[in-house]
Amino acid sequence: MSIRIRFLPHPKGPNWSAGRIHNSFCTRQPSFRSRRDRVVIEPGVSCHNCKFCYQGRYNLCTRFTFIGTGNRPGALCRYIAHPMHNCYKIPQHIGLDDGAMCTGIASAIHACKRASLDKNSKVAIIGTGFMGIAIVLTCKMMGIKNIFVIEHIQRIDDVKAGIIQLLDLFASIITRRGGQIVAVNPKPGAIAAKLDEVASREIDIRGVYNVGQ
């Protein structure tokens, strides 16, 4: 007798909002009063029991998981189970489509906080996708006027070095001495740096992963 094991499709979709919630939300969470309350979610799930979670930096939790990736199903389905403390009620005047973008906008705000920007900062943003545009809008809301946006470039030909990668471009050309580079959710192997350029120009490099405190 042979047994065939079939794996169900793995749903994708990390960013979502919901128009109807389970009854248990109304009984356990005072902010939810009706099953028709609409919610937006934080897709990252942490253990809430490590030092990073206690510090409020749950995105650095060693057991941090993201819905739609790994072994946690995403939101491209009719029903989904998600921790109650990762759900936030949204007002009626905000649509579900707009609510689904809250996670990306929160990541942009976290990136600007990590960069310690103020209205006198000069900001160069590489990438014109959703995250790049969200960071531009966040900078404008902070009153920053000197914003430069560059289309994403994988590799650039350089007369002396041949081919340099994205972070090298920032370190040697764009970033001023004593400035800083903030890498927002970079893909593995997408960036590399010449540490001698970074060190000699005293450039700080900061990473941003998902949504912070």
UniProtKB/TrEMBL annotation:
<keyword id="KW-0560">Oxidoreductase</keyword>
<dbReference type="GO" id="GO:0046872">
    <property type="term" value="F:metal ion binding"/>
</dbReference>
<dbReference type="GO" id="GO:0016491">
    <property type="term" value="F:oxidoreductase activity"/>
</dbReference>
<keyword id="KW-0862">Zinc</keyword>
<keyword id="KW-0479">Metal-binding</keyword>
<dbReference type="Pfam" id="PF08240">
    <property type="entry name" value="ADH_N"/>
</dbReference>
<dbReference type="InterPro" id="IPR036291">
    <property type="entry name" value="NAD(P)-bd_dom_sf"/>
</dbReference>
<feature type="domain" description="Alcohol dehydrogenase-like N-terminal">
    <location>
        <begin position="37"/>
        <end position="92"/>
    </location>
</feature>
<dbReference type="InterPro" id="IPR011032">
    <property type="entry name" value="GroES-like_sf"/>
</dbReference>
<protein>
    <submittedName>
        <fullName>ADH_N domain-containing protein</fullName>
    </submittedName>
</protein>
<dbReference type="InterPro" id="IPR013154">
    <property type="entry name" value="ADH-like_N"/>
</dbReference>
<comment type="similarity">
    <text>Belongs to the zinc-containing alcohol dehydrogenase family.</text>
</comment>
